[in-house]
Design brief:
With 391 residues, the protein is mostly helical. The protein has one domain: Growth Hormone, Chain: A. It is built from 18 helices and no strands. The longest helix has 30 residues. The chain is globular. The two termini are 22 Å apart.
C-alpha cells in the first residue's frame, strides 16, 4: 500500500533519512583517527588505509547481495540486523590491537552497513507514488553527507587528546539507540510476491545499466577516497591545529551539502537528472585537476568547491538514477548493484591513494581523482537520452 497523505509521506522520508544518516556513526568514524591509529599500531598509512579497502570491498559486494535479498524479504528487518551488526563490530573493534583482527571486524561492519541503503530505497519505491521519486531521491543523499559531518565533528571532539578506542566504542553504543528508534518507527515495504532469484533477469538488468555502474565506479573511487583521506590531507597541510582537523573536515562536508541542494534545485526545475549529473561531474573534475597545482588556503577553498559538485553528482548517481532505471519490484537490486560498484572502487582508493600520496604527493592523487570524474561526465553525457525513455 502506498503512502497517501503528505504528512505520512514526510514522516516516512524523514525516518529513513535520519536513520541512514546515523548509520555513519559507525562507518566514517575511523577516518578522523586514521593517522593516530596508524601510529598506535606502528604501521604505514597505506596499511591503515587497508581498513578502508576491506570495508568498501565487503560493503560493495554486500550492496549487491542485500540489494537482491531486499527485493524478497522485509527491508525493515534487514535494517534492524544491519544496525545491530554495526554496533557490535564497532564496540569489539575498540578493544583490538591486531590489524588483521581489525580488518575482519571492519569487514563485518561493512556487512551491516550494506543492509541500509538499498532496502530503504525499496521502501521508498513501493510506498511512494512514482511521480514523487525524483523529488524524494534528491533528498536522501543529504543524509549521508550530514551523517559524515556529524560523525567527524563528534569523533574529532571526543577523540582529541584521548585514546583512539573511544572513537569506536562510543559510536557503537549510540548505534544501539538508533536501532531502538528504527524499531519503534516500524516502516517496511509491502510483502513481496517475488517468484525468487532470477539470474537471467539479473544478467539482463546489469547489461542495461552497465554505463551507470562504470560511472558509479569512477565517482565512488573519488567520493569514498575523499571520505577516507580528506582529514589526513587537511592534517598534512599544516594550516590548522591537529585537534581541529575533525571539525574542519566536518565543516567542509556541511558546506558540501550545497551540492546536493543545487542538484535537487536543478532537477526540480529541469526534470533532467542525467544532464545535471554531467554538469556536476565536470565541475568537480576540473576543481580536482586544479588542486594538482594549488596549495595553501586557496587549495582548501578549491577542494571545498569540488566537494560541493562531487556530492551533487554522487547523490544523483547512487539514488535518482537507479530509481529511474529500475523496473517494477527491482529498485532494491538496481540500487544495490550501482552502489556495489561505487564502493568496490572506493575501496581501491583506501590503499591506492595512501600509496600514491606517500610516493608522489597529494597533487598526483587530486589529478587522478579529477581525471576519473571527467571520464564519468563524458559517459553519462553519451547516455543522456535514456532518461526520457525511463520516465
Amino acid at each position: 500500500m502506498r503512502v497517501s497523505s503528505i504528512q505520512q509521506q514526510d514522516k516516512l522520508v524523514a525516518t529513513l533519512w535520519l536513520t541512514y544518516a546515523l548509520f555513519y556513526l559507525g562507518r566514517v568514524n575511523f577516518s578522523v583517527v586514521l593517522p593516530g591509529l596508524a601510529e598506535a599500531l606502528n604501521i604505514s598509512r597505506a596499511e591503515a588505509g587497508a581498513l578502508g579497502t576491506a570495508f568498501f570491498w565487503v560493503y560493495g559486494i554486500g550492496h549487491f547481495v542485500s540489494g537482491e535479498i531486499g527485493n524478497h524479504v522485509s527491508p525493515f528487518r534487514m535494517v534492524c540486523g544491519g544496525l545491530l551488526i554495526i554496533a557490535l563490530a564497532n564496540i569489539l573493534f575498540s578493544f583490538q590491537t591486531s590489524l588483521l583482527i581489525m580488518l575482519v571486524l571492519w569487514g563485518i561492519n561493512a556487512v551491516g552497513q550494506s543492509a541500509g541503503w538499498a532496502p530503504m530505497f525499496r521502501i521508498l519505491a513501493e510506498r511512494l507514488d512514482r511521480a514523487h521519486i525524483k523529488r524524494v531521491s534528491t533528498i536522501m543523499p543529504i543524509s549521508y553527507v550530514a551523517g559524515t559531518a556529524v560523525t567527524w565533528a563528534f569523533v574529532g571532539a571526543i577523540a582529541a587528546g584521548r585514546d583512539w578506542q573511544v572513537a569506536f566504542w562510543l559510536p557503537g553504543l549510540l548505534t544501539l539507540l538508533v536501532l531502538a528508534f528504527w524499531w519503534k518507527a516500524g516502516f517496511d515495504a509491502p510483502v513481496s510476491h517475488s517468484a525468487g532469484l532470477d539470474l537471467a533477469r539479473i544478467g539482463v538488468e546489469l547489461r542495461q545499466i552497465w554505463f551507470l555502474m562504470v560511472a558509479a565506479a569512477l565517482v565512488g573511487f573519488v567520493f569514498n577516497g575523499m571520505t577516507i583521506w580528506l582529514p589526513t590531507y587537511i592534517l598534512d597541510t599544516g594550516l590548522i591545529a591537529e585537534h581541529a582537523v575533525g571539525s574542519l573536515s566536518a565543516a567542509m562536508q556541511v558546506v558540501a551539502i550545497a551540492g546536493l541542494v543545487a542538484a535537487r534545485y536543478r532537477v526540480m526545475r529541469s526534470s533532467r537528472v542525467f544532464i545535471t549529473a554531467v554538469q556536476m561531474f565536470a565541475a568537480a573534475g576540473i576543481a580536482f585537476v586544479l588542486m594538482a597545482a594549488t596549495s595553501g588556503r586557496l587549495a582548501l577553498l578549491i577542494i571545498t568547491l569540488g566537494l560541493i559538485m562531487l556530492n551533487g553528482a554522487f547523490g544523483l548517481t547512487v539514488s535518482s538514477m537507479p530509481l529511474l532505471l529500475a523496473g517494477a519490484g527491482r529498485a532494491s537490486s538496481v540500487t544495490g548493484s550501482v552502489n556495489m560498484m561505487s564502493n568496490l572502487f572506493g575501496g581501491v582508493a583506501g590503499i591506492a591513494i595512501g600509496a600514491l600520496v606517500e610516493k608522489s604527493g597529494w597533487p598526483a592523487a587530486f589529478a587522478l581523482w579529477g581525471g576519473a570524474l571527467l571520464v564519468a561526465s563524458v559517459l553519462i553525457w553519451a547516455k543522456r537520452g535514456i532518461e526520457d525513455n525511463a520516465a
